[in-house]
Write a structure and sequence with these properties.
By secondary structure, the protein is mainly alpha-helical. The chain has eleven helices and two strands; from the N terminus they run H-H-H-H-H-H-H-E-E-H-H-H-H. Helices cover 63% and strands 2% of the residues. A two-stranded antiparallel sheet has the order 1-2. Strand 1 and strand 2 form a beta hairpin.
Length: 283
């Protein structure tokens, strides 16, 4: 994050010290957040789980591609269920070599699924003993923010209170629109997609649930136990606004992906508000 001239090819300790002093005086140095060892350890475990999910998805795509190529189609809608694997066991490939390859693809899917389940279980077991567990529990009170999404958010971002305002958090997550404007010409494009992509994907997944009307389900009611009243008000305010905004923007003719991205951007702002409220309670 230290600005550097493109033509500067001489590097010495003295020149670096002078350059840093000048940049610091001009306010051009941007501080970088450094997580503690405990947070970084939890982040490593979460990213291992994400890598396992990517391997699982790849194994499933390979098996599906083979079945599609050979003309086997599953009659029901939902795949990768126990019923789906029972259907796979009834299939017989045209040649012995294909039958071996087919069975190996099934084993790859099953092994990757077991690895994902094991890592997810370990994350949920270690999370209550983590220093950021209270914040994770508070975020789970929000609609669509399951335990894994809340844990991913806190492990990747750390202290949300380090952002001065929610706009900084949105920019850090790459949710703000890109822009190339000059003079009277204004041109805005898609989101920048800079910053932490792990949290951005998790929030986009959580934003999908706001397509339904606002309501407090049984699961949400259980997750809101032992949550302070000010945070409950923020959570309900977020749900009412985001559910209503989802319907309004869809009615304007916007594509679903753009709507979900906009909802995810505002969801991060409400998470920032919860973090600020948590800081006030612990102060």
């Amino acid at each position: 994050m230290v600005p550097k001239k493109s033509g500067d090819r001489v590097k010495t300790d003295r020149r670096d010290a002078v350059s840093l002093a000048r940049l610091h005086r001009a306010g051009e140095l941007t501080p970088v957040y450094v997580p503690c060892e405990e947070d970084e350890a939890m982040r490593d475990l979460i990213r291992a789980q994400e890598d396992a999910k990517n391997a699982q998805r790849t194994a499933q795509q390979r098996l599906s591609a083979m079945l599609l190529r050979l003309g086997f189609r599953y009659s029901r809608k939902t795949a990768w269920t126990p019923a789906y694997f029972r259907w796979l066991s009834t299939l017989k490939m045209p040649h012995a070599a294909q039958q071996i390859a087919f069975q190996e693809y099934i084993h790859a899917v099953q092994d990757s699924t077991e690895r994902v389940d094991l890592l997810t279980e370990q994350i949920l077991n270690l999370m209550p003993h983590w220093r950021l567990a209270p914040m994770v529990k508070a975020l789970q009170a929000m609609r669509g923010v399951a335990p894994m999404i809340a844990t991913i958010t806190m492990a990747e971002l750390g202290d949300l209170g380090r952002f001065e305002n929610p706009r900084q958090l949105m920019a850090y997550l790459g949710f703000v629109p890109s822009e190339q404007s000059s003079g009277k010409k204004e041109k805005r494009g898609g989101i920048t997609k800079t910053g932490n992509g792990h949290v951005r994907r998790a929030l986009v997944e959580a934003a999908q649930t706001y397509r339904y009307p606002a309501r407090i389900s049984r699961h949400l009611l259980e997750r809101k136990e032992d949550i302070a009243e000010p945070i409950r008000k923020i959570v309900w305010k977020a749900q009412v606004r985001l559910c209503g905004r989802f319907r309004k923007v869809i009615a304007r003719g916007k594509t679903r992906n753009k709507v979900v991205t906009a909802i995810a951007r505002e969801l991060s702002a409400f998470m920032w508000a919860i973090a600020k409220e948590m800081q006030l309670q612990t102060a």
